[in-house]
User: Fold these one by one.
Assistant:
Number 1:
Amino acid sequence: MAVQFSIPLSSSSYLRTFESEIDISAENDLMVRGVMSDHRFAFEHRWKVRAPEYEVIEASAWQIAGDKSDFDPELCQRYAGIAGVRIGRGFSKRVVSDLGDLPGAQEHLFLAIEMARIAQQVYQYSPEFEAQFPAPSGSSSEIAHLAWLKDRAYMNLANSCYAYRDESEALFASREVRCGFDPGLTRPQPGEKRVFWRSKRISIERTNQGYACESAMEDRIHDIKIRFDLSREGVISNAQSRGLRVPYYGICEDAQLRTPGLNGLKVNDAFVAQFAERVGGASGCTHLFDLSMDCLRLFHFVPR
């Protein structure tokens, strides 16, 4: 297996950034804005999203920078066609279908995926929904447990990761657990600006042995990072992660302990399943998995 970085570089390093924010325009309507860029391009996407269905009501795109031969401006016109898509199964397939195979479609897809990820971070609990749950007694673990129950019920998060797996419910009684986010995040009001924001950064450095990869995310709920070295033969070493800010302190940290299990892994073109087994799934962290995928999708894994 030979590893090849898929993007032409004029230096020994690569940097891709994503900056985004969400405003509340009206009850159940989210205005999502995101900008992605690297040394070749810069795009901005804007969505109007209806919750709780998370349906994209309106979509628009602008090409801020990028050579027209590599990033066709026609994609920005086509992008409006994704209106009506719902975030979830089939989302990427729909975006690919609407954009076609013009140069730059892959980068627009990457940005659309980030838009979908952040859009689902804003909840708008109704009084009827909240009435289903008892008021907590006041301890940090009970407050966190209540938030956990609401998360799972509102977004169908049961067993989506270590924190939301069924077995983790017992941890609220055996440990001190506290929320890493303001409960007011679930009750944004029409007219509120920047109720949620997110910043992401991927950096790749060429080394004598291959590549040093780092992928980080910071927002109102998270401040997490994963890094690993990837040899030219596809072998991972020096894998580590950290979570300075997490949704549930006392639980989410457990998933970080799985990251060193990547060491020695020989990555191949089935890397999605490989990483899902080691850092994702019901025993891992969805965000560490996504951050890893964001890096690996920038490489080709070619059989020798």
Number 2:
Amino acid sequence: MTQTSQHCFLIGAPIDSGQRRPGCLMGPAAYRTAGLAPMLESLGHRVIDLGDVAPAPVEAPALDNPAVHHLAETLGWTEALAKAGQAAAGQGLPIFLGGDHSLSLGSVAGIAAHAKSVGKPLFVLWLDAHSDFHTPDTTESGNLHGTPVAYMAGRPFAGFPPFPAPVPPENICLFGIRSVDAAEHAALLAHDIAINDMRVLDERGVVAPLREFLDRVAAADGLLHVSLDVDFLDPMVAPAVGTTVPGGATFREAHLVMELLHESNLVTSVDLVELNAFLDERGRTAHLMVDLLASLMGRKVFDRPTRSYRGQS
């Protein structure tokens, strides 16, 4: 719950295996260098940096799709992050520092296992240019960073252990997407996932669709996992990502989303993913992502009364 002081557990995941462009493994170090921990402490939160997770040793099964690469490494990361995430979720707010978006195969699995253990429904807000709804069978690129949403939604997922507690599709909100492959599009039509692509956000703005989703989380007394991909943002303001797609969220739109999430008092875990520090401009994107997390964790220019999602409106 993000309106009071929290125990924030930083979990580094220097993962490059989910895609082919080197550099995301520098993400956790870049966030730390950009002052993420001191920022959280300045807002009154206690920070416990658990360091960087190491992938578990795993043997990969054979897959029918020859395009899939780094399967064993990705499985190892998934297992290790699921364990670390579940343990941290029982003690405070886990913040996963990536690393490419295959990180979420493990982070969300761990949070889902925790949610199941405490008898709460899990909701996921996916802030991303991509739907990431491929499976190991459908991906043409073989990049497993494009598969986590399919995994958490319980789609058939070759080579991976069953997801511990599949997230009902209606509990998943894709926000800001603008790049969807044909196979993903067809699969999404068969699932009741809230899809707020950039056309929706252009027409309605970010506030109305986000509040509608947050109202559903609050009504269900659910846990909310937020997965923030650098490419949710327009590459003009956040260049340090290997999967740039023009037309993303502006600086102010992104901060507004974070401020609304803070005011909702619903966020229970966070991913920061796809920061490729090798592509950054003197730390510009790393600092922006830290600033966005600051808005999510309570930094404001001016305090004002806000509606409560858990109390009276």
Number 3:
Amino acid sequence: METNQSLQNEIAALKKENLEYKESHSRFETVFENSRMGNKIISAELKILQVNPAMVALLGYQHKEEIIGSNIFDYAPDYCHKDWEVLRKKLWQKEMPSFTLETCLMKKDGTLIWCQVTSILFPDHGKTLGYTIIEDITEKYYLKLQKEEFISVASHELKTPVTVLRANTQLIERKLKLGGVITADIIKFNSIAAKNVIKLNHLIDDLLNSTRIDRGELELHKTIFILSDVIKACCTHIRMEGKYKIIYSGNHLVQVYADQFKIDQVLVNLVNNAVKYAPESLEIIIHAEKITGFTKVTVSDKGQGIEPEHLAKLFDRYYRADSENHASGLGLGLYISSQIIKKHGGSIGVESIVGHGSDFWFTLPD
């Protein structure tokens, strides 16, 4: 009787354990199938045993059957095979209970996506399998590359005016010690130093404003002012050189409700951009007009224009259309300008025809 009862207890325990396993497996399948990230199960040979719909979509396929049974190496460029070998070594040789790496995979159409791969081992009917989560970090990866390039560019751009400034102040000091008289050379050295102080200030302002934008701390202090007054007073550093003419056209009585100093900054950025990328255009025209519901300001040059492939990226952070030709700047001016205008509730854009020049414009709502 006792033996019979013991057997019944064992059967009941097994049934309970089996029920718990089925419930756990069902929960796992629900999470696996419905995850927004790519999920897959792989063997120790990196053979793909199962994938979820997000993984199928991530690799650009339509059906699971196109992927199940293949090897992860089939989707990895040759130079990324080493990443998966490291994963296999770390996991299946039990060096680490879980493993995370960054690598790239190739989609069905041949394009590459950068991924963060997180894998853990789990037992399944006497086998040890790998459960892998794939997160598409392509955008983050290229942003990281941009930041690294930006740091390199920023270091160079900041170092150059500082070096010139130091050299010229030393020359001025030496000249004054020798004669104590302000000569033509001293005036020249002082002018060069002053220009580099202005350049340094612009670079530092760009860095500070970029940081404020990241923190959501870009504040506006709006007042009503006559736009032509700000336009006529802006860009004194360019006007003083005497090389370029900044011409105002349009309604001289247009008033706007905006942050006067921020709008001045946008104008300086757009005019600096014209001088930098259209140096042959000795006239830069700033036109303001009142349109129903808003005011539109356009900064025009008659330079070589901008290639169509660059236009959509000009207002992206760190983007420099002429970076291959080592144009100066941090690639922040147009980005900061776009954020300032958006903060005002306006729009910003560019129209350009190669060989004829460019029109950078922005609007401010009434």
